Fold each of these.
Amino acid sequence: MSSKYDVLVIGGGNAALCAAISARRGGASVLVLEGAPKFYRGGNTRHTRNMRCAHDAATEILTGPYTEEEFWEDLLRVTGGQTDEVLARHMIRESKDILNWIVEQGVRWQPSLGGTLSLGRTNSFFLGGGRAMLNALYLTAERLGVEVEYDAEVTDLVIADDMFLAARLKRPIKGETEIHATSLVAAAGGFEANIEWLKQYWGEAADNFLIRGTPYNRGSILKMLLAKGVQEVGDPTQCHAVAIDARAPKFDGGIITRHDSVVFGIVVNKHAQRFYDEGEDIWPKRYAIWGRLVAAQPDQIAYIIFDSTVVTSFMPTLFPPIAGQTVAELAGKLELDPAALERTLAEFNAAVQPGTFDHTILDDCRTEGIVPPKTHWARRIATPPYLAYPVRPGITFTYLGTRVTKEARMLMTDGKPSANMFAAGEIMAGNVLGKGYAAGMGMTIGSVFGRIAGREAAKHARN
Amino acid sequence: MHGTRILDEADRLMTVCNSCRYCEGLCAVFPAMEMRRAFSDGDLNYLANLCHACGACYVDCQFSPPHEFNVNVPKTLAIARAESYAVYAWPQALSGAFARNGLVISIVAALSMAAFILGFAAVNDSGVLFGVHAGPGAFYRLMPHNAMAALFSAAFLYAIFALVMSVRAFWRDIGAPIGGRAEGGSILQAIRDAGELRYLDGGGVGCYNEDDKPTDRRKLYHHLTFYGFLLCFAATSVATLYHYVWGREAPYPWWDLPVALGTLGGIGLIVGPIGLFAARMRRDPALLDEQRYGMDVGFIAMLFLTGLTGMALLALRETAAMGPLLALHLGAVFALFITMPYGKFVHGIYRFAALVRYAQERKAEVS
């Protein structure tokens, strides 16, 4: 059995659905193949919350302007210049219109309700979060006549002379089949849930990584494309990793396992030793370095240690902190050497200098005479109960991808663009994000390039 | 932990939700949750009654079943809400009525209607009971107006008193953390929020029913039911004024205010409950407190019965069926009144109190 569509979209997240909708609106017949079951559809999109779009003035949902130039400067800063300027500027320009386009596809932004809700200047928040956004896109796609198949595991891509011909599909009940399409949009994400693949770069340490998204982000489409002559982009060893609670499930713990308490205490490894300046910079800027820092520690585990004076300074956490009336008791519960932890805390407390604490600025509370120092927000940890969160690296996404043009068209290893293969979302994010990350950018890449890929794929199919 | 399994579960969920907060724009429950880091029994009962069961947070949640975090806020809060009705019921001796509510309501309704039929038959000879009566005072040939007024006032006052005592207990329990009395602004805000069912809208798209496609159907049927009920109540109040102030006795002509109000209200009380019942039957069981089928349906049935018998009485009031129909209608209304504090009716009262509390808290937070 085989069937033929104008546009085949592989993947089921924000980029895939934007591509499917945009292709369908462009007059194409569209099939979406989502490898996950319906509940887990959408890959990392189900865990997202907001999108970063340029805009010239404050709106109902954004507190102030965020110009294209400012967006570009932010991107330049977080990537350290590792970005494709032409593509990136194109994306930023297109992002302005996405603010409205995505609403036309049924997605709702969170309005201000008297100032208690999360409202930003740079980022717009989805009402109800990423899964709500995804549900809206699926409803729109289905209403437009896009066909969607779940549990659809693509086992091979038939590509000849840089042209996509068909995808081989293993259906759980109906068995093997081949889907032919005039254009392909690959929007199937990265390989963060593929531990074996991660091990190629991280070795056995990858066994101790927790994956923040679903187990379906295995990168199989990316691997096939790279093996069949598509040019790769991005550092394969790079991934977005944050420190998340070590008690989180192996997969799909999402946003709620994160910790934002690092700046309020110290972080020690399994030898009860500090290893990095916990007060280096304002927290959101440093959020994403702690995953890699913990990954570099023995057994990929660390402990955020603080005391009872700061428990209400950060968001309530899913897992309660582990508590001890004495440092030794806490160390016992964490299976750390009590003497070592007591010594680390005593040295830290002795090094704390007087200052005025303010976690919203780079304040003057710092240590002196210890290595590494804590350069801001350093306060003595001396009021029992002593508390701790165990943390491990939580992998959000990977950077390795397929190189694309401004039309989201894949480039082949010989430098030529493919006639009918397009990519959008995390699978090509490495074009824009060589490294680093700023909140909401993944969704911008997904929506902007998804929309472009769908449009171009439909255009190709109709010609 | 808490006194009951469901409150333990509600506490677990609010801890999960409080570390996520993606749903904060959907309704009042999540902003209210964010004002707390820990949850007392009263807090959880407050949140449970603040929830309008629109279902959006279940459909939008990345951790709802089959996810291992098993987050199902609508169902959990629905069960907690139903259990809270029994907790605050006055007198406590009657709180058991909530356990098998459908049965209790049916028995009370049947007994009440039977009592009126038998009472009418005992007092009136069959010529009067099955006679054709017309003109002012026609109803009171079957039951004297003063007897009717005394009986229904007593039932009504009892219901009011029991409800006041119940909601007082609830108010104390949910007000404890911050305290304070309700003031005008918050009550006005709550009247607006309740009147338009502001939070029964899934954050704007409608509520979730049998699938993942939101609609505003339940809101519409609830409006028909609620405003139908109010119109019927207004009809009775106007008629009471007519009777005592102007000495004009029922039945009134079809164009007169009590009948016009009652007719509109009666239509609402027939169409609304049918729509709510159909929605209840088709709703995704994942969102429902399935154990409370009897309570949900019992109240809807009582409203429907009240509307239906009232409309039948209006249509046939000049025939021999008037006597028996009047008995049935009075029986239905009497049963509705005396079961009010012990059935689903209380949801409106507790939810209103929760909305007042929420308006207070919001005001305190902003200032």
Note: Chain A touches chain B at residues 39, 46-47, 49, 108, 110-111, 113-118, 125-132, 135, 139, 249, 252, 254-256, 312, 315-318 (CB under 8 Å).
Amino acid sequence: MSEHAGTPEAGGIRFDQVTVAYDGTAVLEDFDLRVEAGEVMALLGPSGSGKTTALRAVAGFVRPARGRVWIGDRDVTDLPPHARDVGMVVQQYALFPHLRVADNVAFGLKARRTPRGQVAERVAEVLEMVGMGGYARRYPRELSGGQQQRVAIARALAVRPGVLLLDEPLSALDARLRSGMLAELDRLHRELPGVSVLYVTHDQVEALTLADRVAVMDRARLREVGTPRALYRAPRGSFTASFVGSANLLPVTRAGEGRVRFGDTELRVATPGPGTGGAAATLCVRPHRISLGDGGTNVLRGVARAVQWRGATYRVAVEVAGHEVVADVPESASTPAVGDRAAVSFAAEDGVLIDD
Amino acid sequence: MTETDAVRGAAGPRVRERPEQRRRGAPAPGGHAWLWALPPLAVLAVSFLHPLALVVRESFSGGTAAYRQVFGSEAFTDALVTTVALAVGATLGCVVLGFALALVVAFVPFPGSRSVARFIDVFLSFPSFLITLALLFLYGTVGMANGLWTGATGAQEGPFRFLTTPWGVLLAEVTYFTPFVMRPLLAAFAQLETAQLEVASSLGARPARIVRQVILPEAYPALMAGGALVLVLCLNEFAIVLFTGAKDVVTLPMLVYSKAILESDYVSACVVATVDVVLSVGLYGLYRSLTGRSSRRARAHA
Amino acid sequence: MLVHTRKGRWAVWAVFAVVFVPLFALPLLVIATASLSTNWSGALPSGPTGAHYASATRGESLAALSVSLQTALLASVLALAVGTWAALSAASLGRRGRRVLDALFMLPVAVPSVVVGLAVLVAYSRPPVLLNGTRWIVMLAHTVLVTAFAYQSVSAALTRLDPAYAQAAASLGARPWYVLWRVRLPLLLPSLTAAAGLCFALSMGELSATMMLYPPDWMPLPVQIFAATDRGSPFTGSALAVVLMAATSLVLFAVSRIRTKATYR
């Protein structure tokens, strides 16, 4: 599925037609994905979409019913977890409560029988890397949530894994802390250029901020893979369109080259998209690409149904031909009141046609 | 300020509500807490504490003469040694076996492993002598094992005659008391986050190392508490010994029984009883201090 | 979770079965089978018979069952009352006071049951209260023994009980008695029934203290089982044992039903 044609090397993860089933129900189906060495791949999807299952298949905690999992050029499908050479960070950190921070970080090194002197050196190094150098003697319960998170990351990195598996690592933190950690994860990854990262999240902001590429998942299947920008600008499916960023999804019919019909209004769109005239399609327009007034190429007229103040912008919902069109517009004197007649417009290149 | 510092500053010191502070009991009705404790204390004093004191007083009724006589008798020293040896042996057996079995039930679950846990609860509510009774059918002189042997070899007698020796008592005690170790262990294992085991194995730890370095330290208080409880229960066990009908396995409780009921020598019985109480209560005190510590630790982890 | 290969898991399960089944499941099975046989000196018992049950459910055996049930019922009701009262008053004491009460009420667990029997025998074979030779001395000893467990269960439940409920009730203007009666005791109900079940089961199977002080006209079931086994009829003994287990299980089951109801309310 990946368009990157890379040669197999030390890092990287490859899912080859992986299917995982519990009691006959597939929780991951025909999953094909390649994460390059040094790449950050986000698995984005709602709960139950199979994203965590995919991660656990790499770690070795679920066994695929079919298909193979590769780490670098090793087929790890039949290897036990301890032989897979991965680093893993989970939502609740799972620090060992009876071990001090330093011993938690040293755990993997000792499991690999690393000489004692090297263990101490490496522990100090990774703790410094995550900014926890001063906490080596503490117990996990004496740390804040964010600090425990850093220790968990240090513990995973200490063994210099080829791949790093992050399972909703920030979801236990509050919003403010989360954005800080996000910046930090980004910095950490730049310090570790060879490590492939598989980052499972249901939060699109995390995925778009951190990932080189995002794999969108829904109901046990991979829906779409692409760079955050591509997925946001030109989603191919309506699930991706609505899950990655917010979107107006308008039912339209094709009316010829570069033209569609929405209600009784004809709209111009830049993307040709497949399909012939008269065929049904969905038009995706991002709210912030829609402006008030009739100054754009495509103009929709209707009645304002809701106006919400959102700080930097107003969110205006206008009912057009029985559908709600949402626009994020800057504060201005012309912001309509609820019940007013209103016109909104957007440029041809901001309308993306989707087929499902 | 670096990004790191900014984030660390935002995290701040974590203020955690200490459960102990919330767990203070509500004040008693009326507010005179000790007054309300008096009626049950009075009942306990009349029904148990005073009788126990009478036993101690009775044991000194002829000065220390009875003590000198009892301590000088071979029957007493034998019983003391047998009691302690059996209790220690059975406890070790229960701890090892209970830990291993609980590990499988909790961490290598199989279809029906939950009913094993429930079976253990039922097992605990049955009296101990049922085990000895069952062993009589299995390894008794006319039991199944010996019957099979004589049937197969044509010999007059089977080779299994350990039931009336300390080994028979040991087997019965290990069987009956192992669930007492398993139950607190299963509770402790249920508290353990499975994510910890997974992270440990993804860090390269094999099962043996995970058991040693992750599971055992976490379950250690429960294991110690269960082991100490079993030690005390084994020291006090009477029914199992009574049912084997072995003349040469005499423990301290057995000695108390035979002195008082079979020989009607109440003074000697009271002497042995006093010694037995000191032994058991001493060990039980140790057990209480251990469980107290482990529950405090569990709360600190919560 | 711990063993990741299929082969490894099967190996572990095989070892588990080899240890668990003969050691724990077999004894109960053996007793049940023996209770239906007349002879067992081979791989399997022989001479299937229902005679042991016929005799186990009439005459002095039936009387023994009745004695055991009455004793256990009285002992567990008394133990629950005293134990709950003591646990509630201990919970309202300070840390040190609670420790003293804990130690005193848990003492009967640490003291060998035989010695508890001896102590009760010594104390109540003399004036002012002469109970020796009556059924009451058995009931007293049983109550002493099981009160400790009632106290322990209720104390444990009290520490788990979130004080927020009682505090909320108090903030709504409820007096301490009202809080106790309408809030704390109802919340404790599941634990109280569990404690009652535990006490009942322990009393049903009590042999050690009973051997020290039972009068001829108040012979509980465990003593009867011992007597049968001791005089060389273990098959009758095992039929009685099955009756004992069945009666205990039945009561425990009934108690757990009440408990589920109380929990869901």
Note: Chain B touches chain C through 102 residues (CB under 8 Å).
